[in-house]
Structure formats: structure tokens, C-alpha cells
Design goal:
Elements lengths: L15 E5 L5 E9 L3 E6 L4 E5 L4 E5 L3 H9 L2 H13 L2
Antiparallel strand pairs: 1-2, 1-5, 2-3, 3-4
């Protein structure tokens, strides 16, 4: 079963992955581990699956992608202003 029950909706921030096998079959699940050589996931049934990276196509869906991209746009002054505002809410 996936760590933390990610497939059961208990971790909405888990990275979702779609793996396309050489046969064209696709397998979706929650990312367990990825490196230069292998990718492993927990599929929808809770089964652990692993493939060599060179043999499959991988698409990772990051639910926080837009937030991560914003971090590159914020300046130190922007962050200071946000913190100063939040301090006024106490």
C-alpha cells in the first residue's frame, strides 16, 4: 500500500506520474522514487511498480508547479512586504 495512503487521497500534494511502456500501455500512480536509472511508483491498486528509465516515457504532474514557478519571480523586497503584511494580522 502506498506510503501515507497517497492513492486514497490522503496526500493531495503527492506527485502523480503517468508511465508509458514500450507497448503503449500507460500506468498511472504516485511517485515513489525517480533517478537517472529507474522510476518506481505505487499504482492505483496500491501495487509497487518499477521500470528502467531508458525503457519508458515518464510524465510527472506536480500540483505545486505554479507555486514553485512563482518563487523564481518574487524578489527579496516582495517577500519582505508579504512578511510585513502578515505581521500586521497578529
Amino acid at each position: 500500500q502506498p506510503a501515507g495512503g497517497a492513492e486514497k487521497g490522503q496526500n493531495p500534494l503527492a506527485l502523480r506520474v503517468k508511465v508509458t511502456l514500450p507497448s503503449g500501455e500507460t500506468v498511472s500512480g504516485t511517485l515513489k522514487r525517480i533517478d537517472d536509472f529507474e522510476i518506481s511508483i505505487w499504482d492505483a491498486s496500491g501495487t509497487y511498480r518499477c521500470w528502467p528509465r531508458a525503457a519508458v516515457q515518464v510524465k510527472i504532474e506536480d500540483p505545486l508547479k505554479a507555486h514553485r514557478e512563482l518563487l523564481d519571480r518574487y524578489t527579496d523586497a516582495d517577500m519582505h512586504n508579504v512578511l510585513a503584511y502578515l505581521e500586521t494580522l497578529k
